[in-house]
Amino acid sequence: MVLNACYSQSQANAINKHIPYVIGMNESIKDQVAIEFAIGFYDAIGAGKSITDAYRFGCNAIQLHNIPKNVLPILNTNITYGKQ
Question: What is the pTM of this model?
Fold first, then answer.
């Protein structure tokens, strides 16, 4: 799940208790930067890449715009989700 909202990291943490992958934000992000992340992320998903790789593609796409690392989206993973 990708939370398309600024300052959504606390919600991402809560949701991640119930689903394996959630992407949230600690900071505010400009719309164009969010669009660039989404393009990189969903292009990678469409190409059959893993969620983790798609996240990296999205981050790489916005780093081309000189975005500081503290403004990058955060991938929350709960790899034990669904395991008995």
Answer: 0.84
